[in-house]
Design a protein that fits this description.
alpha/beta, Rossmann fold, 3 domains, four-stranded parallel sheet, two-stranded antiparallel sheet, flat
């Protein structure tokens, strides 16, 4: 039931966005040509603007505007929409003046486009404010009751409170009610979250079983935590979690398809990079002495080591004192190296690693053996991130801390890595790649 409500809210949000874009176009044509709108004018604008609106919705998706886990207040909503519509304005100009008009149509909507962008921004902002205020209302919230006690209880409650837009409200009691069925009816409970293993607690299992006729969703606390945070609570899982959730046989088609795309796009990327390579190599040589290609041993799938390659972005002998964690504003990075990292140009040689099958485009970050040796003794299940190939980009690189330069940050990244390993699919990979492109275009690479 909870998953149904979340998907319904997302669908309403998407349909609302599309509706506001068409409303903005309708008002724009009234402002430009007067009321009533001539059917010929409407039809002439309908098809090209429909294509444009589809692209705009994709841009909104890439910028996480359909992720209900992210909350927007008035200021950051307006700021985000303005930044997105700057991008959308550029896209619209390119679409009409370099694609649509030269090859398909003949409309040149200078004033129409400007008016439409202004109307779209204003109406979309108003619609989003109404939507967020509505779904945050406690009057329509889905009540959740956590039965039993575990160390994850308070963490889950805090995560739910941080995301009121999901529409969940936790009902708490000092003791577990004797008649759980009656309690759920009186408090309109939609979701029961069990904080303990039902296999080990037959009484709790019977109590929850008595509520099934009420149509209530039942979740294990770890599963529900994953549902609302998109990460795995590593500190609270056991070996059995991996046996129950990581069935590799079901991923065979996905792995074969992913390998095909890795081969095709890494080969294509290397061909495209041929003209850039001499220029990059020359700048690296002119800025600082040392090799052009930086090679470093990294750990791949199932612990197999390989030689990862990058264009050198640090000064010569940057690690003469031994392996060091990357850090923000790292003084070892050259000026051109900083630019390469922001644009991911330094990773072009790693396309060879992908072609060889040592890496993939999407996966956990390839870590150094020296750090893995330390972290597997400090962090539970850290070694399990090696169940899949490492990637140029990944879920943890997008969602986790910028640098894994400490035990705390590495633990947080592991939570996202395990989420990816469990839920990896072509759709999730595509989402990660699109969001990575957004980061690169925004100069936020690392």
């Amino acid at each position: 039931m909870s998953d149904f409500f979340v998907k319904t809210k997302k669908l309403i949000l998407i349909l609302g966005d599309i509706g506001t874009l068409y409303l903005a176009l309708y008002l724009t044509l009234i402002a430009r040509y007067g009321y009533p709108i001539n059917p010929g004018v409407w039809n002439r604008h309908l098809i090209p603007f429909s294509v444009l609106f589809l692209i705009w919705v994709i841009v909104l998706f890439i910028n996480d505007f359909y992720d209900l886990r992210i909350s927007y207040n008035t200021n950051n909503l307006l700021d985000s929409l303005i930044r997105i519509f700057i991008i959308n304005t550029v896209i619209a100009a390119v679409f009409f003046y370099f694609i649509y008009n030269p090859f398909i149509g003949t409309i040149r909507p200078q004033r129409v486009l400007v008016i439409d962008i202004v109307f779209s921004l204003i109406i979309l902002f108003i619609w989003r404010k109404i939507f967020y205020n509505f779904i945050k209302s406690s009057k329509i919230a889905n009540n959740i009751y956590i039965i039993g006690q575990s160390s994850l209880n308070q963490t889950l409650i805090d995560e739910i409170k941080r995301r009121p837009q999901l529409g969940y409200q936790v009902i708490t009691t000092s003791e577990t009610p004797t008649d759980l069925n009656k309690f759920c009816l009186e408090n309109n409970i939609y979701i029961l979250v069990s904080a303990q293993s039902l296999r080990d607690d037959s009484q709790t299992a019977r109590n929850i079983f008595s509520c099934l006729s009420l149509g209530i969703d039942v979740y294990n606390i770890n599963t529900f935590y994953e549902l609302i945070t998109n990460k795995i609570p590593v500190e609270h899982i056991e070996h059995s979690w991996f046996l129950e959730n990581l069935t590799e046989h079901s991923k065979k088609f996905y792995e074969i398809t992913k390998r095909f795309f890795d081969l095709v796009f890494s080969a294509f990327g290397l061909i495209v990079a041929i003209p850039l390579t001499p220029i990059i190599a020359l700048i690296i040589k002119l800025e600082s002495p040392g090799t052009i290609i930086f090679k470093q041993i990294r750990t791949g799938k199932n612990g197999r080591v390989f030689l990862a390659m990058k264009f050198r972005s640090m000064v010569k002998d940057a690690e003469k004192s031994g392996a060091q964690w990357a850090q923000k504003n790292d003084p070892r990075i050259t000026r051109f190296g900083s630019l390469m990292r922001k644009t991911r140009l330094d990773e072009i040689p790693q396309l060879i690693n992908i072609l060889k099958g040592e890496m993939s485009f999407v996966g956990p970050r390839p870590e150094r053996p020296e750090f893995i040796t330390i972290l597997i003794t400090e962090i539970p299940f850290y070694n399990e991130r090696l169940l899949v190939k490492p990637g140029l980009t990944g879920w943890a690189q997008l969602k986790g801390p910028t640098y894994g330069g400490s035990k705390t940050e590495s633990l947080e990244k592991l939570k996202y890595d395990l989420y990816y390993i469990k839920n990896r699919s072509l759709l999730l990979d595509l989402s990660i790649l699109l969001k990575t492109v957004k980061l690169i275009l925004g100069g936020k690479g690392q």
